[in-house]
Backbone:
């Protein structure tokens, strides 16, 4: 009997021990999961935003032919520093560019060699100039960016020995000089007309006598002088510099007024912010140095 009691007691103790072990195993607490804090989330998001490539942008710039060399240089510099931006230039006479814009051509920025062509696209301009009420200039973006000079340039060696506008006038009157000038719808041609009027020369009579040839933009006039098919040409001093031509005289404001280039973002632009950024770049120190090197005076 006594032995049975001892065995029962031992069996009870053994069962209690097994229950205790099972209870401890079932209540083991799992380690807390690792979570990302709000600060970490914000840091990761900022990193992803910074690393993301900028959206590609194509800027279409319509600019006066006299800006061909300088804007090509500056455009390449800008694209090198802003790899997401592609700049497409359309260089021609300001009158031709104005007509293309009016006809619906895609364009983000217009830089004219004269106020007239910009005014004809600006609803805020005098109605006597913008006679059809065209509205293409984005309000608040128009400004004057550059000044140029109207120059009397001669071919290499100056065969006709022309050294001033006074010499030009004398030769035009006696029929000994052939002059190249821009068409009447081209700013450089309009400045030339003012010079002829200043000297009381009648353009129609001179042209009828064979003393004048014309170009549809300043580059065509420059080419005629470079090729010596004329005795002289009235162009911009910047074009004379780019073509390596000799300038013998420059016109005063009294003779033809100031040659001011206005610039503006167009309200039909699909890339207004990018267009504003490029125009801002064109008014900076780096751009000024390029403009000044060829004879422009930055005023933007």
Residues:
């Amino acid at each position: 009997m006594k032995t049975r009691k001892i065995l029962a007691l031992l069996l009870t103790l053994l069962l209690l021990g097994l229950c205790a072990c099972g209870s401890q195993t079932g209540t083991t607490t799992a380690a807390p999961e690792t979570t990302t804090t709000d600060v970490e989330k914000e840091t990761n998001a900022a990193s992803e935003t910074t690393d993301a490539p900028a959206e590609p942008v194509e800027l279409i710039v319509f600019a006066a032919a006299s800006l061909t060399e300088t804007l090509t240089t500056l455009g390449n510099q800008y694209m090198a520093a802003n790899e997401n931006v592609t700049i497409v230039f359309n260089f021609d006479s300001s009158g031709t560019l104005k007509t293309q814009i009016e006809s619906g051509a895609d364009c983000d920025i217009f830089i004219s060699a004269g106020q007239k062509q910009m005014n004809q696209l600006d609803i805020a301009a005098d109605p006597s100039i913008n006679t059809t009420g065209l509205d293409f200039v984005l309000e608040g973006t128009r400004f004057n960016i550059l000044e140029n000079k109207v120059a009397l340039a001669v071919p290499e060696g100056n065969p006709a020995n022309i050294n001033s506008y006074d010499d030009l006038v004398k030769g035009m009157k006696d029929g000994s000089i052939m002059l190249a000038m821009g068409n009447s719808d081209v700013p450089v041609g309009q400045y030339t007309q003012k010079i002829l009027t200043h000297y009381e020369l009648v353009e129609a009579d001179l042209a009828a006598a064979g003393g004048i040839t014309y170009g549809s933009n300043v580059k065509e006039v420059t080419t005629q002088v470079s090729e010596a098919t004329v005795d002289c040409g009235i162009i911009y001093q910047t074009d004379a510099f780019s073509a390596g031509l000799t300038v013998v005289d420059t016109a005063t404001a009294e003779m033809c007024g100031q040659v001011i280039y206005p610039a503006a973002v167009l309200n039909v632009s699909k890339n207004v912010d990018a267009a504003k950024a490029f125009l801002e770049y064109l008014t900076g120190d780096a751009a000024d140095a390029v403009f000044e090197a060829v004879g422009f005076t930055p005023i933007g």
In short: The chain has two domains: 57-147+260-298, 150-250. The longest helix spans residues 2-26.
